[in-house]
Specification:
Low-confidence stretches: none
Structural class: alpha/beta
Distance between the termini: 23 Å
Mean pLDDT: 95
Helix content: 25-40%
Shape: globular
Radius of gyration: 21 Å
Length: 484
């Protein structure tokens, strides 16, 4: 029997029943990686010897009567997480030999839950792209079409899952880095509520692993089914014990509903900053139609929705303020000079990006205060709705692009070129206010590429979009093995 594409839940049942051992699962996964990953290049740092050791220990633990949430399950980890003894580079050549001395908190939690880590997955340079290429490890390809990107920055993890390299993976997201790869590769991912899962140890080299949450950024689970997302989120979802104490445990409320027909969903297809391509629009409509057919309340407009144009601008400013804080002085000074050339009434996304990059502390506080107004708007919206259904990006996976300058790159939307970075307003819709968002497969494009959508839920009610994802999976289907 082949196990590579079975769900984590199914593998757990089989392990408990003695139908398979962790060593057998791990050997099969390694054989598949060694056979298929030469052309995909998802696993940039294999750790097969330690994986086999961990699998043998998992089997011994089960024989002793132990049973942990992920005991014996093969998984992968995004390269940007610290794993003791393995390189953590974030794709930066100058840190090719950097090896941290201890595991990131989430890696430690996954290990404590009994998982077998097969290795680390590829990322873009500094995690700063919607594709996964760097000079150390090369280019990761989409298992559905090797000429297209798997997404970024968790592209290696999404490609690994789509190719059957392990049952689960852990990634991160500040500009769609969990959701975009899921959308492009036809898998599931969940961007948790900001602050729900500690990110300590998910840090660029050689920075120390300190107990602080980077603004906007989260870590989260990736899987081939919605239920597996919840399984892994339960392992990850706890604050940092260094800041809140080892006894602290955040109890997430249950999903608002258990039946698909009871959900109230607001559907968004259009954003003022950028058009939505026909393939993505069709996927949103397919999910909306399934909701209507199940008896759910579906609306296309609401006066409670925070202003999308302002939200996009605010996200752009906060994101660039965050990223530019780590830029060298020379680059920062050049951006400051460039920002000063824009007219005060220029509200283009290019202008707002540069303004955000050189925010003063006073500017940032003002933007953070505007974010609180948006958060209040979302709280009011979620008194009338349980989730918002919308695109993740305007198109399916695009062809591999070697232009690393996001300022000059363009994205083709139904034959028309638009500024590449403008599409980030869709993932930013949930990121800016810190809301949870679940990415789900929603069909395929006319070219046969996967197309996903996101389900945005209320803050700290992560189980609501996750449950909605589970119910939709039963209605419209979910992950499919790539056909090339």
């Amino acid at each position: 029997m082949e196990w590579s594409f079975r769900t984590a839940e199914e593998l757990i049942v089989a392990l408990r029943a003695g139908e398979v051992t962790s060593v057998e699962l791990t050997d099969e996964a390694i054989a598949r990686i060694e056979r298929d990953d030469k052309e995909i290049n998802a696993i940039c740092v294999p750790d097969f010897d330690r994986a086999r050791d961990a699998a043998r220990e998992a089997d011994r633990a089960r024989a002793r009567g132990e049973d942990r949430p992920l005991l014996g399950i093969p998984v992968t980890v995004k390269e940007s997480y610290n794993i003791a003894g393995l390189p953590t580079t974030w794709g930066m050549p100058q840190f090719a030999d950097f090896r941290p001395g201890e595991d990131a908190v989430q890696v430690a939690r996954v290990k404590a839950a009994g998982a077998v880590i097969l290795g680390k997955t590829n990322v873009p340079f500094m995690l700063a792209d919607l594709q996964s290429f760097n000079e150390i490890y090369g280019t990761t390809s989409n298992p559905w079409d090797l000429g297209r990107t798997p997404g970024g920055s968790s592209g290696g993890s999404a490609a690994a899952l789509a190719a059957g390299f392990g049952a689960l993976s852990i990634g991160s997201d500040i500009a769609g880095s969990l959701r975009v790869p899921a959308h492009f590769c036809g898998i599931y991912s969940h961007k948790p509520t900001f602050g729900l899962a500690t990110a300590r140890g998910h840090v660029p080299p050689p920075a120390p692993a300190l107990p602080s949450d980077r603004d906007l950024a989260v870590v989260g689970p990736m899987a081939r089914t919605a239920r597996d997302l919840s399984l892994l989120l339960d392992v990850m979802a706890a604050p940092d014990p260094l800041t809140l104490g080892v006894a602290y445990q955040l109890a997430l409320p249950p999903a608002r509903h258990e039946r698909l027909g009871d959900f109230r969903v607001l559907v968004l297809e259009d954003h003022p900053a950028i058009p939505t391509g026909s393939a993505v629009r069709a996927a949103v409509d397919r999910v909306a139609d399934a909701l209507v057919a199940a008896g759910a309340r579906v609306e296309r407009h609401s006066p409670l929705l925070p202003d999308l144009a302002e939200a996009g601008t605010l996200y752009t400013q906060l994101l660039l303020a965050n990223l530019a804080s780590g830029y060298p002085d020379q680059a920062y000074d050049a951006m400051r000079e460039h920002a000063a050339t824009f007219a005060p009434d220029d509200r283009s996304m290019d202008a707002e990006r540069l303004r955000g990059a050189v925010f003063s502390h006073r500017d940032w506080i003002a933007a953070a205060n505007r974010r609180e107004l948006h958060r209040q708007g979302w709280r009011e919206l979620f008194t009338e709705f349980d989730a918002v259904l919308c695109p993740i990006t305007p198109t399916p996976a695009f062809p591999q692009e070697r232009d690393t300058n996001l300022g000059t790159r363009r994205i083709d939307i139904d034959g028309v070129a638009y500024p590449f970075a403008d599409q980030l307003v869709w993932p930013g819709l949930a990121t800016m206010p810190g809301l949870p968002a679940t990415a789900i497969p929603a069909g395929r494009s006319p070219e046969g590429l996967p197309v996903g959508v996101q389900l945005i839920g209320p803050m700290f009610e992560d189980r609501t979009p996750l449950r909605l994802a589970e119910l939709l999976e039963l209605e419209i289907g979910g992950f499919e093995q790539p056909h090339r």
